[in-house]
Amino acid sequence: MTPAAPAYRRLSVEERRSQLLDVALSLFAIRVPEDVSLDDVAEAAGVSRPLVYRYFPGGKQQLYEAALRSAAEELRQCFDEPREGPLLPRLGRALDRYLVFVRRHDAGFAALLQGGSVVETSHTTAIVDGTRRAAAEHIYAHLGVDEPGPRLRMTVRMWITAVEAASLIWLDEDRQPPADELRDWLVEQFVALLTVTAGRDPQCAELIRGALAAEL
Amino acid sequence: MTPAAPAYRRLSVEERRSQLLDVALSLFAIRVPEDVSLDDVAEAAGVSRPLVYRYFPGGKQQLYEAALRSAAEELRQCFDEPREGPLLPRLGRALDRYLVFVRRHDAGFAALLQGGSVVETSHTTAIVDGTRRAAAEHIYAHLGVDEPGPRLRMTVRMWITAVEAASLIWLDEDRQPPADELRDWLVEQFVALLTVTAGRDPQCAELIRGALAAEL
């Protein structure tokens, strides 16, 4: 089949794929995944339906997973923060970027994390879990911890989950409180959870006395 | 169709339904939902396959949702705690019962919360969300708060999500730390999160100065 109308300009295969994923992500940001068809993507991208099918022969599910992978990659870049300067502002800057990401992907972010979506599969769950693990690894690296013990790991993973919950509520409540206030609040919660764990765990106690001492 | 073999003793319709759900929940506790068939339930319950189908004509998905509803009801009962005596021990006792529940439902609890399961639907998600809301309502009631503001609500919901994350890690790590230690740790985290929020929110500040003052 030949596309009904040629695209405005010739894109390389990689550029086209990336354009289609961007368009798909912008649709997922405003509609639940179930309501985004390949036709919608074709229309929004100004390309023919067969072209979209050529890139995503597996249909909607393939498109969704590819878009999710692309978003996950973007999210991992949010975590990239130079290991320089005080620790808590580093965490704050990563959270700033994270909240911009959440705001941009809006409905798509919420649908993914809220579960119960027909496009949710063991693949999508694995992508989300991989991103959570990456976030935790970044935190250990910034804290200067090579081998996080079970208490530190549990604390960090609980905080990451709590941050996700906060993001969903934040979207639901028209992004209140303002992003910078939410960011500071989340950083304070991180410190509070680590401080509580320090009472039960030598590794966390050492972090509070050492790496974080100057900032508390 | 007539059952191949009569059950050992005659149960009322309600008793039989409840027996089948108990058996199903005990299977879901050790296997992922995808691997539990109505045949397995019939075999484990010592009843005929047609009998199980008579109770759950919608098949596996109907059985799963009914079992989940039954477990959700059981979990709500864990939250029931007399409104007497110091607040933090009340929270501790509810958490004790919750951790017994988590341990008993083990794999089924994990599969449900981890997402990506083929039996997860908007129905199952609604049941889980309803249970989370019930947990939050119990907490507001014990705190003596009629109208929780947005900060308190976000704090309580973040803590509930963090508790779920901790339960999953706990199951994954052969239930370490021991339940009573985990319970105390989670109570301390609750206080720490509320204390952090108190710095930003008059309602939480009042709770720390008032209802919780004697216990901190």
Automatic annotation (TrEMBL), chains A, B:
The keyword Transcription applies. Residues 14-74 form the HTH tetR-type domain. It comes from the Bacteria. GO terms for molecular function: DNA-binding transcription factor activity; transcription cis-regulatory region binding. Keywords: DNA-binding, Transcription, Transcription regulation. PROSITE patterns: HTH_TETR_2. The keyword Methyltransferase does not apply. PANTHER family: HTH-TYPE TRANSCRIPTIONAL REGULATOR RUTR, TRANSCRIPTIONAL REGULATORY PROTEIN (PROBABLY TETR-FAMILY)-RELATED. This is TetR family transcriptional regulator. It comes from Streptomyces antibioticus. The lineage of its organism: Bacteria, Bacillati, Actinomycetota, Actinomycetes, Kitasatosporales.
